[in-house]
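Blinded run. Sample ID left blank on purpose so nobody reads anything into the name before looking at the predicted structure. Input follows.
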Amino acid sequence: MDQQKYTEFWDGQMLEILTSDKKTYFTQLIRHETDLLIQRPANKQNVPMLVENDMDVTVYFHDDQKGLCSFGSRINRHDNGKIIMTKPSRDSIKVVQRRQFFRVKAAVEMTLVLPPAKDSNEEEGDKLNITTHDISGGGAAFLSESKILEEGEAVKGILYLKTGTEQEKVEFKGKIVNVMKQHNQFYKTALQFMDMREGARSKIVKFCIVKQIEFRNKVRD
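Blinded prediction complete.
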């Protein structure tokens, strides 16, 4: 089969999958040949996707030149447990125009200011120095040994975005949108950025793109 027909994919690439009922899942590319072999997709709560054969999905990925792209695909689970998606032709890949933030796994230093205690007269709660588990232009998530926040609580903080020799400080306000206990007994807390200026958001999006490229190059090496 003519491989020039296809756009560039690479082992370890992060992909986002949107199902026909508008549910979003995340996966990673294991191998790309005539089809795309992927890890079992899971949502933000780490709940695995129920894969039905010949299931139509939309796949999002980041391209170095075009930015965020998407293509339609069909997903199947084989008897041996392997999950395969059909590989798109180059002309079926579209540049995404609508608002969509691509998530990357990245350990970013973050200062998080907790809400004050209910019986406190303070305007702010404790400050925590933590590291993110993943980040996007829309929000971030982190792991903790105990449950430190509840869904709906408001927080604020600073992200320290390091790329090479450069570092950007991005202040943010956020809302906790999910707290889920993981299989490893850690809690994964997801926050959504609120009222963020586009200049600050663009720094985060740029950082995510750089980290995606760095990861790709590391996998290749």
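Unblinding after everyone has recorded impressions. Residues 42 and 98 are 23 Å apart (CA to CA).
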